[in-house]
Predict the 3D structure of the following.
Amino acid sequence: MLDVLIYRFQRLWRVMVLGVLPPVATVLALQVVNETTFPGLLACALAVPVLHVLRYPQQWVETFTLSLLLAASLAFVAFTVPPEMPLVQKGLRYAMVCAAALGAFFSIIVPMMTLYNLGPGRRIRYTATEDSRLDVATLKAGMTHYPGREDEGTTCGPADENGCFHVTYSIAGFHQFNYEGPEGSPADEIEDWDLTQKEDISQYAIVQSTGPTHHEVIYFDGDLKRFEIQDNDVIVVRYDFAALPDGGTRVTVEEIGILMPLAQSFGFWLEDFGRDRLICAIDTLEGRAPRANGAFRVRGMVVELGNLIAPLLGLRRIEPPTS
């Protein structure tokens, strides 16, 4: 667990900085205006966003939304809770602020997530490098996709006359809201919640170039038989493997062509997604306990809060499948 927390501090420092910036700036401005200090509010401004990132490492939109609400809440507290207020009244005021912030969070998180997916797509390109104690041949065989590869979580079909082959591989799934409403209610229409740990990705691929120390693959969505490639869906991934003088291998992966709206590409950079994915693959091959963010299901505060509140509203739990 400590290994995972240290890794998240290293990989997600950008998200943490973004998260603490609005509330910390708000508290510092309040201290200047009021000519006093607010050590408790400053500690809260620092701790809450960082703790959210550590608990929900793949939810930077949630972190930023929470950060904005936290800044507003701390400003409200600074102006409405004087130091001389009795302790009981302070507690009630804090509870009121927390309840209001919680309601606001549920109200604006969906629009924020919607904005995250809006806008024209732009192609991004990233390069990630990481060292491994394994040799070149082992890493190349275990990380890249090629016809006939079949192991846990990855299946590559045979190549056709054009060199095309079908690829299916698993990624960590989402932690879902797993409650539904009473029979006959609108919420009862919710069906088939995905409660699985993994989700399958299915694509077609062509090995563009390969050799002892490199492997380049083109991925696309299209018709395997007719060999159609849609330009908007083409992604090129290249792996380079360099043996290190003291043993082990330096792996460099370059990916070109991922189409993302501006906010998504910003989040890709914030979460250092490319290197995280590379580290996840290397850790798996080395037999190391998972630490990369991509090795865990995507959890969200809004889902976990929903699962806590749902029973209070009369919703019933959907049990995961037994097989």
